Amino acid sequence: MFLTEGIILFILGVLAIVVPPIATIAVEILIGWLLLVSGIVGLIATLRARGAPGFGWSLISAVLGIVAGIVLLAWPLSGALTLTLVLTVFLVLEGVVSILYALEHKRELSGRWGAMLFSGVVDLILAGIIFAGLPGTAAWAIGLLVGINLVFGGSALIAMALHARNITPTSTT
Q1: DSSP letters of 44-111?
Q2: Least confident span in 10-14, 56-60, 136-140, 158-162
């Protein structure tokens, strides 16, 4: 499964790198739909539980989700700067988690932990590039950097999956 996931991530990453403006818009539209659907579900759940504590706050949260989703779907480029900042935070967190994941694999079993470590370092570098180029990079940065992230993350998963095929249960100790 890791090999399949890695191959799919790699292919999607290459596509995003080739056409970053389209990938940027695709990411924003996806987030718009996620916010809209989650807002609608939240609104329905909130209205069904009118007597629950925090009803007003829950109602506000649901309406905000709906409004944010509609704005991103109606004007996907208007949210590019905000989503670029969110992506920066994501890449920082993803980079740190990937590095910690790699270090855990180094201690446990995987001979390819360096690929995951490298992927985490690349995520941190990408976050720095995004932040340094704002606001001018917002229109294309999301698509390009998500693509690069997918290529490196997919490559790391492919490397780890291929290495794991050669490990016997007794060689993990």
Answers
A1: HHHHHTTTSTTHHHHHHHHHHHHHHHHHHHH-GGGGHHHHHHHHHHHHHHHHHHHHHHHHHHHHHT-T
A2: 136-140
Block residue for tokens 């009118």: 50
Distance CA 158, CA 152 (A): 10
Q: Is 19 helix (H, G, I), strand (E, B) or coil?
A: coil
Question: Is a pLDDT exceeding 70 seen at residue 172?
Answer: no
Q: What is the pTM of this model?
A: 0.60
Residue 64 to residues 60, 72, 110, 157, Cα–Cα distance (Å): 6, 12, 44, 37
Residue position matching structure tokens 């739909």: 33
pLDDT band at residue 22 using 50, 70 and 90 as cut-offs? confident
DSSP state of 170: G
Pick from 149, 143, 164: nearest CA to 98? 149
Contacts of 56 (CB under 8 A, 6+ apart): none
Q: Over 90: is that where the pLDDT of 83 sits?
A: no
